[in-house]
Every structure is written in C-alpha cells, then in structure tokens.
Task: structure prediction
Amino acid sequence: MKAQIKKKLTDYDMQQLIGQVLRVGVILSGTIAGIGGIWYLFQQGSGTPHYGTFTGEPAGFTSLTGIYKGILTGSAAEIIQLGVVILIATPIIRIIFSLFSFILEKDGLYVIITLIVLSVILFSMFGGLKV
Amino acid sequence: MTILTFTLILLAGAYLAGLAGSLTGLGGGVVIIPLLTLFFHVDIRYAIGAALVASIATSSGSASAYVKEGITNVRLGMFLEIATTVGAVAGAIIAVYTPVNTVAIVFGVMLIFSASMTLRKKNEQILTEGSRMSDILKLNSTYPSPEGPVPYKLKHIGRGFSVMTIAGVLSGLLGIGSGALKVLAMDTAMRVPFRVSTTTSNFMVGVTAAASAVVYLQRGYIDPGIAFPVVIGVLAGAITGSKILMKINVNALKLIFSIAITLIAINMIYNGFNHKF
Result:
C-alpha cells in the first residue's frame, strides 16, 4: 500500500478511484433506500398517497438532524431519506476525491477549478437558498 | 389507490423510464416528470425532486464504468462543471419565482428539443488542431478504441462553456440532467468526439443535479415515498438498458421514443397554458 502511494499518481489511478467512489455510493444508497422502502410499505402501505397538492416535506425529511431523529424512532421514511442523502452526496464526494487526486498529481490549475466547483456546491448547501 | 399500489405502479413506470432513458441516451429524469405529473397527478414540484434524484442515480451508476474505462474526459467534465453548477444554483433560485405552469411549459419545450437531439447525426469527425485555450486547460486527450488510443483536440471552449451554463440553469429549474444541451455544447461547439461527449455529459449530470438537489431537499421537494420507487426503478431500468444496448438496433426505438416524447411534451405545454398544474 505504501509503495503505491509513493509512486506518482496518474490519471489512470484517479479514474479507477472516481469510478469506485461512484459505484460504492450508488450501491450503498440504493440498498439503504430499498430496505427503508420495504419497511415503509409495511408501515404505511395501506394508506392513501396525497401528492396532488404540494405541502412541502416536514422538517424531519429535509435536514440531517431530522432524518437522524426519525431513524432513532424507527420511522422507515427517514431511512429512505438517508439513502437519498447518500445518493446526493456521492457526486460531491467524487469532487473531493478528484481534488485530492489533482493535489497529488501537482496539477495546480485543476486544484483551483475543482475548488471552485466545490465552493459553488457548498454555497448551494449552506447559502440559505431554501426560501 | 393505496400507497402500496402507487409504489408498485411507479416502480414499474420508473423501470421503463430508466430503460428508455438509457437506450436513447436521454437519461431517466426526462420521462419521470411527465409520468408523475400527467399519469399520477403528482404536483410538479415533487416530480422535479424525484427526477433530480433519479438523474443522480443513473449518472453515477453508468459514469462509474465509463470513467474506469478512460472514455470520460475528467478534466473537461471538471472544468465545465463550473458552468453547470453555477447555472444549476441560479436555476434553483429562479424556480422560486417561476409559476409551476411556466415550469411545465419550459419543460415541454426542453423535451421536444431533447427528442430532436436524439435523432441528429453524431459527430464522428476528430480534430487534430485544437485552440490555444484548450491547450492551456489541458482538455485535449485520448479515448480508447479497439485500434488503440485515439487522440483528439478541442476548440470554441468559451462557446461550449456558455451553452453549459444554460444547460445548468435548465437543470436546476426543471430537475433534469439536460444531457441533450450538454452534448450539443460539447459536440457542436467544442467538437468533442461523440463517445467522449456522451460519457462526459453523463459524468457531469450527477454533480450538476447534486448542486440543485441540496437546495430542493431543504425546500421539501424530495418525498421519500416517491423517491425510493423512482430511484430503484430507474437504476434497474438503466442497468437492463446498458446490458441490451449493444444487442438491439436502437435507431427505430429512438424514432418511436422521440415521437412519444414530443406528444407528451405537447400535452405538458397544453396543460401548462391551461393552468392545470
């Protein structure tokens, strides 16, 4: 493992790493959403859907703390939301891995480009755009 | 209709959407929105949330294979993601001030454009002379082929970047990957070879959609009861699609699908003008 790190990191290594990050993210989120989904059908499957009017989701589904609290109480919907959050996080984590790869490749220009993309997403996350 | 039947029908619909999206290259999100709004009468805002999540799932799922094979131009994707993410955040802000019926009309127009794009001729020509900008940004690269790596160079980087910004805005506003516009920017303007542009576009969809999805999640557009059948269905459909893609002739399918999409689009535009959303 150490010999590998010492060796100069190439574009090929980065491609394998990014590909792996994306794959793990999709499998993990799909599995969690699937388990949550089956459980959700057991809990609420006999109810009636009411998606015709938009009410917005309750706080429990829209924030990490809300999702965490919901899971602790055994609510399946929040488990699905956890899967969704992991899915949304997957491309963002991919950017962070790209950033480290460009740093190791000593590609200054692309370190800056990657940082710009990352800051746009972070602004979107914490910029209070939810209105 | 109970939640159980709703989920099962939606799961089947999302599977077909993922399959069609993967075979035609349009992506899963494009079919999910009309399916949810016109067929299930789901509010278009929930549909946008679900489509965004579906776009991220299909993009990440298929991109992982293409990136590993070295077809995707990661630097080009990274550079253009500046344009698409800024656009996507702008789109998510614009969405607040846009009436849902207008969103539906814009979506319909975008759908017709996407359908016509699937029928157009691919860019097979490879440039051997690139622009200076392309050189500075290290965008010239190679892609693997049975005859060994094929080198290619790019031009009109600024023009491609501008179209990408528009693609980002539409993606943030409508919740779709806007793959068609992305390919237009890369193929037509920057002269990226077809295989590279489709896979790089796919690679970028995930990040672009994530940029606006974080906003829509906080706004409460993403409902778990819709999200889970959509994600699982679209993913399974996309996997089937990638397995049978090489075995069937997609040209006839693309034509049928484009006609179907255009009819759906006209329906959405009509309903939008009549304030049915």
Observations:
- Chain B has a mean pLDDT of 88.
- The first strand of chain B starts at residue 141 and ends at 143.
- Residues 3-273 of chain B form one domain.
- Strands of chain B lie at 141-143, 150-152.
